[in-house]
Amino acid sequence: MADHVIRVLLVDDHQVVRRGLRTFLEVQGDIEVVGEAGDGDEGVARAQELLPDVILMDVKMPGTDGIEALRLLRDAENPARVLIVTSFTEQRTVVPALRAGAAGYVYKDVDPVALADAIRSVHAGHVLLQPEVADALLSPEQGATGQGRGNALTEREREVLALIADGRSNREIARALVLSEKTVKTHVSNILMKLDLADRTQAALWAVRNGVGS
C-alpha cells in the first residue's frame, strides 16, 4: 500500500459509469473510492460530508450539473480537487468548467491507467488536460501565434508559465521563485502579450499544448 491513499468521490448520473470507475480504481493500491453521487446536488453534499481528496465529476447531469456543482464547492471552500470526466469537449463546456475551478479535464474514453495517473496528478496540485482538450480550447490563430512567439519568452517567463500551468497563484509563484508579487504580475502580463493570449487559462492551456512545465 502507498503511504498516502487518495480518497476519491465519483459524481455521475449513470450508475454503470460509476460502477466501471469504481471497479478499476479499487484495484489501485493508492486510490480509494469513498463514495458516489448521481447528480451535482448530491455530489456537493457528499463532498462536504466525506471531504475527499479528488472528485471525478461529470458535466452534463440532471438538476445541478457539474459546472454549477463546481461553483458550489468553490463557494463552500471545499478543498477537493475536481477532475472532470466527460464525453463533452466543446469550448462552451470546457472553459466554464475550468474557470469554475476544475483541476483537470479528461474524456470518458480515457485509458484506465491514464485516468489513475490523472487522479494522482491533480491530487499533486497540477492542472491536467489531455492534449486534445487543450487543442480544442485554443483557436488555430492562437495556437499558431503562440507557437511562433514562444521563443520570445525569457527563461524566467518560462518558469512563471510552468507554474501557471501547475495552477499556482501569483503569490505562490512569487514564493516559489523568490520574487515579489508585483514582479510576477509583470511577468504574467508579458507572457500574455508575447503569446497573444487573453488570460491565465489560455496561458495554462498553451503551456500544456507546448510541453512547458511538468
Descriptive overview:
This protein is an alpha/beta fold. Helix content is 53%, strand content 14%. It contains eleven helices and six strands. It has helices spanning 15-25, 40-50, 66-75, 91-99, 112-123, 131-137, 140-149, 155-165, 170-177, 181-195, 200-209, and strands at 6-11, 31-37, 54-57, 81-86, 104-107, 128-129. Strands 2-1-3-4-5-6 form a six-stranded parallel β-sheet, with helices on both faces. Helix 9 packs across helix 10. The radius of gyration is 18 Å and the shape is elongated. Residues 140-146 have low confidence and may be disordered.
Overview in brief:
By secondary structure, the chain is of the alpha/beta class. The chain has helices at 15-25, 40-50, 66-75, 91-99, 112-123, 131-137, 140-149, 155-165, 170-177, 181-195, 200-209; strands spanning 6-11, 31-37, 54-57, 81-86, 104-107, 128-129.
